[in-house]
Input
Amino acid sequence: MSGSLRLFFATSVPSELLESVQERLADLQRDFPAARWTAPANQHLTLKFLGATHEDLLEEVTRAGAAVAHGHQGAAASLSQLGAFPSARRARVLWLGVDDPAGVLAGLAQGLNVALEPLGFAAEAREFTPHLTLARFKAPVKLFSECSLDTGGLPPFEVVELGLWRSHLSPKGARYELLATFSLNRMASRPRG
Output
């Protein structure tokens, strides 16, 4: 598709938190040396993948993202347990889940589904699972039951903005470019002043 951009919406996790996770991955990296591990700089919480998007739609997509962000209040979330897609028995993707007690991430994902459908982007059929991708496997692997990651002591983080990202693919892997950010409404529990 000429004149197209590979786009997705995501929110960021603080870099110091991603570095703490990285430091805790040594045992898993030893257990799965053939995995392609995701660098912390490329980790984010994807909320809606648009894929190849004609550049003529960029302005409308941007407006939709801004409207969705404006309609949601920021909230705290925290990193939780390991998971895998499609399953632990045939893992292609190893991920770290996110506890989202206020439902802000799920709300943003659903809001994006609704706002972008009139622009030709199909709503996700699968239930939204907020996660950080840690690794990908070329061939499916079976994750053993003792496979875990200690997330104890990792502080919660605030979800305060939504980002529109562009993905640049190359033989060396994907590089992500942040095109726009949209602030969520302030958290009621954390007044600024």
